[in-house]
Structure formats: structure tokens, C-alpha cells
Specification:
7 strands, Elongation Factor Tu (Ef-tu), domain 3
Length: 185
């Protein structure tokens, strides 16, 4: 694998930069529903299709968090992920209040998008059996993440501009490659 930017997520509210040299996501599933509805018309041999809107963009992936440190294992970084599934407190407050939302994160790695702000929908841990250190802390944990894009954040407008410019550039590249192909003899 070629050298690339390191994997990270930034938790805005708690002020945590979450990263690890061993955190490389599994395949990243990137989904967005397109909502269509069929409208039954009596006597018509088909049902006209109506556009009903678009769903939220969702990213899902699994992160292996490995740290064989004999003192703390992977607990210190694990606690950063744990803060994503609890109400936000900021970097100075210990306890959250009623109706305090969960944190949002800045994420970009491996998606082909500009850095975007996401809601954390899921952050589940699977501690690997037998991978504990002498202090009984986990040293190998799989973290299942699901992020939902916040399309109301101002950074999303940057993504829309990037998408349009990249699509135009991609079309030009495709045509150039098609015209430059070698014709069979």
C-alpha cells in the first residue's frame, strides 16, 4: 500500500482527535437511498414513477483497534471512541445535561469526498477473546461505525462544488481515454 494521509476522525464537541497508526477501516460502505414511489392509475398498464426525495448518506465500516501495550492495552484510544456513543460534554465538563446531543465528527478518509461533518449513529465494540494484557485490558477490539452525513453543515456546500467539478473533469477524462484507446487491427 502506498503512503497516504493517516486515518482520523475529529470529535468537535469533546475536542478529541481520534487516530491510531493501526486504525485502517475495513471496506467502507457508502449508501444513499433514492426514494421513488409508484402511483397506481386505474386502467393504465403501468404505474407512473414519482421522485420522493433522497435519503441520508451513510458510511459504515469496521476499525481494528490494536494496541498490545502491557499497561493500558487499547483502552486510552477506546475511551475516545466511547465518548462518541455518549452525550457530549466538551473538554472541560464531566457530566452532560438533559437533552445534550451526541457528538458529531469530521471525517473524510477513503470516501472520495471533501472532509464532512457526520452524526455518529453507531459505535459498537467487539473485544477479541483472548486478546487481553496482564492488566486484563483489551488489546484487540473491532469497532463498528455508522456515520450519517449532516447536509445542513456549511462544509456540505464545499462537497457539492467538488462533486460538480469532479463530474465535469471525470467526463472529460473518460472521453479523452476513449479517444486515445488503441483500435483493434
Amino acid at each position: 500500500m502506498a503512503a497516504s494521509a493517516f486515518w482520523f476522525m475529529f470529535d468537535f464537541i469533546n475536542g478529541n482527535l481520534i487516530t491510531s497508526q493501526y486504525c485502517i477501516p475495513s471496506d467502507i460502505k457508502d449508501t444513499k437511498n433514492i426514494v421513488l414511489s409508484e402511483t397506481p392509475i386505474p386502467g393504465l398498464n403501468f404505474q407512473p414513477v414519482m421522485y420522493g426525495g433522497g435519503g441520508n448518506r451513510k458510511l459504515t465500516f469496521t476499525l481494528p483497534l490494536i494496541n498490545r501495550d502491557q499497561r493500558f492495552g487499547n483502552v486510552q484510544v477506546l475511551k475516545q471512541f466511547e465518548s462518541l456513543r455518549n452525550q457530549a460534554t466538551g473538554s472541560t465538563k464531566l457530566f452532560s445535561g438533559q437533552f445534550t446531543p451526541n457528538p458529531k465528527v469530521l471525517y473524510q478518509w477513503g470516501t472520495g469526498s471533501t472532509p464532512q461533518v457526520y452524526f455518529v449513529k453507531k459505535c459498537d465494540f467487539a473485544h477479541q477473546s483472548g486478546w487481553v494484557n496482564q492488566s486484563s485490558f483489551p488489546t484487540n477490539t473491532l469497532i463498528d461505525i455508522e456515520l450519517w452525513l449532516d447536509e445542513t453543515n456549511p462544509l456540505y456546500y464545499m462537497e457539492e462544488v467538488f462533486r460538480k467539478a469532479s463530474a465535469i473533469s471525470g467526463a472529460a477524462t473518460s472521453v479523452t481515454q476513449f479517444l486515445a484507446r488503441k483500435k483493434p487491427i
